[in-house]
Amino acid sequence: MRSVRIWPTPCDRLPLTDMHAETCSLPIGVFDSGIGGLTVLKALTEALPQESFVYLGDTARLPYGTKSARSVTRYALQTTALLKDRGVKLLVIACNTATAMSLDALHEAYPDLPVVGVIRPGAAAACRASKSGRIGVIATENTVNGRSYEREIVRLRPDAQIFAQPCPLFVPLAEEGWCNGEIAELIATRYLGSMVENTGIDTLVLGCTHFPVLSEAIQSVVGPDVTLVDSAWTTAEFVRDMLARRDICSTTASRTLSFLATDGAERFARIGGVFLDRPLQAQDVEIVDL
């Protein structure tokens, strides 16, 4: 698979003062509608090895991709309130739908909390990767219909042509762990079989954090000449830069990694291990009520 992974350099070690030393040691909050955002968490933990993280998957109410903007924004505000109570110093929206629908509302509700979504980093990576400017985007129906990627890509690269395709069945496939094999390839073919031939794209944005685990099936359909862009890696770069700008990089030698979910600890651990590429146990997942 050809993919774009932009590996951040380690966060600059900036001098601390007593006033913000405590803030530097706080964890980074990450949330998604379910398990897909663990692809972003994986990139974050690899890029920022000294940072602590609290991940919350709203598994009781997934998927967000078919919900109304009002509902998704309400869920995002509730999730952020819980993570804020846990003392996070920065928030990552590891969900394209929630980024598209609730980012502005979160900035307004929590003006002192740095918030990073996944759409702008993904769009920036796509613009850098594409030679022709013909860029495909696959995402949930809400993300595609909201045209968030299209606006951001055109803002960065006015000559770009964007071809978007909703792929709603990819989310339950990923959540069930059916990432490879005949079923995944058949559905990928149904969605994407004619995309490259009809559009001539050279770059395809995986515009949902669930989709990277299906990248093998997706690449087999679109072919080796199309670069897949996973926004997880550029999101990690954005987070690194924001930590440095605000001088809140952790300087501790150890870190913590906490997992929260709103339902199904056993299932979260079973499927989440596939996304993280490491084993998880049900006892590692705390069930919370929003």
Describe the structure.
- By secondary structure, the protein is of the alpha/beta class.
- It is 46% helix and 16% strand.
- The chain has 13 helices and 11 strands.
- The protein has helices at 18-24, 38-47, 69-85, 96-109, 119-129, 141-146, 148-156, 170-176, 182-192, 195-199, 215-222, 231-246, 265-276, and strands at 3-4, 28-32, 53-57, 90-93, 115-116, 134-139, 161-166, 203-206, 227-230, 257-261, 285-287.
In short:
The protein has about 290 residues and is of the alpha/beta class.
Quote the average pLDDT. 90
Largest beta-sheet characterization: 6 strands, parallel
Strand count: 11
Q: How is the largest sheet built, in terms of strand order?
A: 5-4-2-3-10-11
The rough form would be described as: globular
Q: How much of the sequence is in beta strands? A: 15-25%
Q: How many structural domains does the protein architecture include? A: 2
By secondary-structure content and strand pairing, the structural class works out as alpha/beta
Q: CATH topology of the largest domain, which one?
A: Rossmann fold
CATH architecture of the largest domain: 3-Layer(aba) Sandwich
